[in-house]
Write a structure and sequence with these properties.
The structure is a homodimer. Chain A has helices at about 10-15, 20-30, 45-60, 75-85, 95-105, 115-120, 150-160, 180-195, 220-230, and strands spanning about 1-10, 35-40, 60-65, 90, 120-125, 130, 140, 145-150, 170-175, 200-205, 210-215. Chain A is of the alpha/beta class. In chain A, the strands form 3 sheets. In chain A, strands 2-1-3-8-7-6 form a 6-stranded mixed sheet, sandwiched between helices. A 3-stranded antiparallel sheet of chain A has the order 9-11-10. Chain A has a two-stranded antiparallel sheet with strand order 4-5. The radius of gyration of chain A is 22 Å and the shape is elongated. Chains A, B: Its EC number is 3.6.1.13.
């Protein structure tokens, strides 16, 4: 299984925010053996979000969209995902109940809050609502597209509810060496060709070593590649 | 002027690394009035990098590519950018001199280092080499595509040498308010429609306020929009 991440928000493109959601989600997917094929950040523009959603939905097994849920004018993700699949936004009963419950819980803190509940509880027709355990805006699943909030605590809380739906078979092994990257090239090329595994070499200057990573969906090839490297690289750490 | 960022590396897609380069570059571009239209992360695969480079180069004013320079098998960015423009990789004299100087400087630390200097100093035919003030691998500029290393210190050092080539006219203003996001919607919609400015609203839960951001390339419209909002929003901080 492979996936893509579509992270929505001008604040990411303006350099106001670091895309920590992408790393968190990618790590969660990797832990489940799922390969993240692309991470794309787009502005809060309906056409751009809809086009990217449609394209990724057709080409990859799953698309996780984060950001741009809620009621302010820059929150256009739900509209965009609906447009990507030619659906209308419709109020969802389960989502509405959640929105009302959340508003009740925060009513004392925000006595003058005036929320358009129907708009907050609207998700694309035919989609499955995803409950927001921490915040106001619900998410949804439409075909292979998962729509999650952008606020990290809300995004994480909602992802956990669907995490089991992501399941792949790619495994990885890490080796650490103080050998310089340039002198490792031949061995890294050879292990890749010999066992067909994916190979990465990442310098960690602070730790003073290079991190080698090998990945594959074939456990036997991966184990053989690891053993081959262990015999030929001076390992550290 | 607008731009896109193309960040290359399996380590970003595996969730091993947070894409701090994207935020740093986006902030540098925003400071120069340049709008970042997309940030795309792709794997270390020549076809994917080449296709994205070509597509973004055609559609946007500038493309900044980071990551995947160097000699290990996963470093395919130079090949990919060359392929995007149907060029060969050729050894560049200026780049070669830099590579040799760098190798000489680190020779005492790595006496057994065995680097293919010609390969390290190869950039796409017809491109302008970018010197690496901190590390081994040179970058380059080919048409509107800037190729920088992925290691943050090297990327930053190299970007500073071309920073003046990025120049736009978008300006931004920030306002802070403790008013809840949901109650701001009408005013945010109105300021957007009335002055044609871009509007964002970002909750900062730790600081306990919402950050409003308005941006535009028309300074008068931006000032008028800011004044209009200041009269109508309860500001904090």
């Amino acid at each position: 299984m492979n996936a893509t991440l579509l992270t929505v928000g001008d604040e990411l493109l303006d350099g106001d925010t670091t895309n920590t959601n992408a790393r968190w989600l990618a790590a969660e997917l990797a832990e489940r053996g799922v390969t993240t094929e692309r991470v794309l950040t787009v502005p809060d523009e309906t056409d751009v979000i809809a086009e990217a959603t449609r394209r990724y939905s057709e080409r990859f097994d799953a698309v996780v969209v984060t950001g741009g849920l809620g009621g302010t004018p820059d929150d256009v993700t739900m509209d965009s995902v609906a447009a990507a699949f030619d659906r209308e936004l419709v109020e969802n009963d389960l989502a509405r109940a959640d929105v009302e419950r959340h508003l009740e819980a925060i009513a004392d803190d925000y006595p003058e809050l005036n929320v358009d509940v129907a708009a907050e509880a609207a998700i694309p027709a035919g989609s499955r609502p995803l409950r927001n355990p921490v915040g106001l805006s619900p998410g949804c699943v439409l075909e292979n597209v998962y729509v999650l909030p952008g606020i990290p605590s809300e995004m994480k809380g909602m992802f956990e509810r669907v995490a089991d739906e992501f399941d792949g078979d790619v495994d990885s092994r890490y080796l650490y060496t103080e050998e310089p990257e340039a002198s490792l090239i031949e061995r890294l090329n050879e292990v890749r060709e010999r066992f067909g595994v994916r190979v990465g070499c990442y310098p960690d200057r602070e730790a003073g070593h290079n991190r080698l990573k090998i990945s594959d969906s074939d456990g036997e090839a991966l184990a053989a590649a690891e053993a081959w490297l262990r015999d030929r690289v001076v390992l550290s750490g």
